[in-house]
Design brief:
Length: 460
């Protein structure tokens, strides 16, 4: 292991390099073998997952999984090895065997998931001695590495290019992605406990940094569950969901907890079922890829009874409401006597312009980036024609005629000028990742500190 993790003179960087060529000494194989066995056993024991892979020959599929489990007994692991490359070679050899075409794609899906798990396992192993904030140097990045990431990792320095999607996933988990030659910058510690009139909520994906987010002064959290499901890969377990939500309730139980129902689109697709979309007639809480999440959430809410608000995505118009009411009735039945309310995202032009149709929703979260795309307008300028006016109208409706919690979310909030404009329009609640908060916290504090000062001066 000592030769596997090379540290640069800068104590904040851990060089891992190419995960596929991560060298492991034979003395350390036993720990990795145990983790490998656990991962494969968990997949084999996942009844929901096996059912989801129908139609396949279950006995033959089981035999393939046994072959995967036996990979570590191959001679290639008896000496020093490039562990992930060896795993990949072994997986390919399993796939080349006599596999029934009717379930070849499903076996390939399992193998893809095992490669993801192996990458995470290798990264975890590389960082096992890290006990201070660090950057990790990698040749290439995979957003699946963010799942259950070591809590000391502040960010990644990536040699190859990474996608906008990778950057988005990293930002939602409060991780910085930087190119190889970028300057490394640490933000000063930011606190917003002094804010009384403005409310800032943290988007969260898992248990990472919950205590820190509360210490900073966030008024609550918004759990973006789709990011968790997508980062896991094939299928999350009910037990994992329970652990995550219980920790969220433990830390933020006395504050607001919003739970975004899973939202999928063409950019964010489930590995198990790419056709699953958060649209009418294409989404169900009882879908096999959603069930473990649903039952995990239900169990925690029934047990602890926290106050939570479920936020439903992609409601375009009142024509969608009957379908979503049916889905929410199912949720109500499962949560019986639960202390929960419902809200929605507003991310389409029709939903914004006909906002009065959603009178029974308790909360509205405006997704500004999606709205800007719909309107084909740039919210960072003052040359927008319609979007700002429609936002003003919706804010009035939800403040006066149909009072409900309102919140804004989007990259545009990191622009100081735009944020000031939204505050002056009357919005008081914002969802911001920590990185954005660092760049605009001065705007928030200045607005509150100067609130009412000019009126007082003019009256003297």
């Amino acid at each position: 292991m000592k030769e596997a993790v090379k540290r640069s003179p800068d104590k904040h960087v851990v060089h891992v390099g190419d995960l596929f060529y991560f060298k492991v000494c034979s003395d350390d194989l036993s720990q990795l073998m145990n983790e490998w066995f656990f991962i494969v056993d968990e997949l084999m024991d996942n009844r929901v997952l096996i059912d989801a892979l129908y139609p396949c020959d279950e006995i033959a599929l089981y035999d393939v999984m046994v072959d995967l489990k036996l990979l570590f007994r191959h001679d290639v692991f008896l000496k020093d090895v490039y562990i992930l490359k060896a795993i990949k070679t072994g997986l390919d050899s399993v796939l080349e065997r006599n596999i029934n075409p009717s379930y070849e794609d499903m076996v390939q899906m399992l193998i893809e998931q095992l490669v993801i798990e192996a990458k995470r396992m290798v990264l975890k192993y590389a960082l096992k001695e890290v006990d201070k904030a660090c950057f990790v140097y990698l040749k290439s990045f995979d957003f699946h590495l963010l799942y259950h990431l070591n809590r000391y990792v502040y960010g990644f320095i990536i040699e190859n290019d990474f996608s906008e999607r990778d950057e988005r996933f990293a930002k939602m988990t409060n991780i910085k992605l930087m190119k190889k030659n970028a300057s490394m910058m640490f933000h000063k510690d930011v606190h917003i406990q002094s804010l009384k009139q403005l409310e800032i909520y943290a988007p969260v994906v898992d248990m990472r940094n919950l205590e820190e987010l509360k210490r900073i002064g966030y008024k609550g959290i918004v759990w973006h569950t789709a990011y968790l499901l997508l980062m896991k890969g094939l299928m999350i377990s009910k037990r994992e969901v329970e652990q995550i939500l219980e920790e969220m309730v433990s830390v933020f139980g006395d504050q607001m907890i919003y739970i975004m129902t899973p939202r999928f689109n063409d950019d964010d697709q489930m590995m198990l079922d790419p056709k699953l979309k958060t649209q009418v007639e294409r989404f169900s809480f009882l879908h096999h890829a959603i069930k473990p999440w649903l039952y995990g959430v239900v169990k925690v809410i029934q047990k602890v009874k926290p106050h939570v608000t479920f936020i439903v995505s992609h409601i375009n118009s009142k024509l969608d409401l009957p379908y979503w009411h049916k889905e929410l009735d199912l949720l109500d039945a499962l949560l019986f006597n639960g202390n929960h309310t419902y809200g929605m995202t507003i991310e389409t032009e029709s939903a914004l312009q006909y906002c009065e149709d959603f009178s029974d929703m308790h909360t509205a979260i405006f997704f500004l980036d999606e709205l800007a795309l719909e309107y084909e307008e740039d919210l960072t300028t003052h040359h927008t024609q319609f979007l700002y006016e429609d936002l003003k109208h919706a804010h009035y409706i939800y403040r006066v005629k149909q009072p409900k919690n309102q919140m804004l979310f989007g990259k545009v909030l990191s622009h100081k000028r735009s944020l000031k404009r939204f505050i002056n329009m009357g919005f008081r609640a914002f969802m911001m990742p920590y990185e954005d908060l660092c760049s605009i916290s001065s705007v928030l504090r200045h607005w509150e500190e100067t609130r009412g000062i000019y009126a007082k001066k003019n009256s003297t």
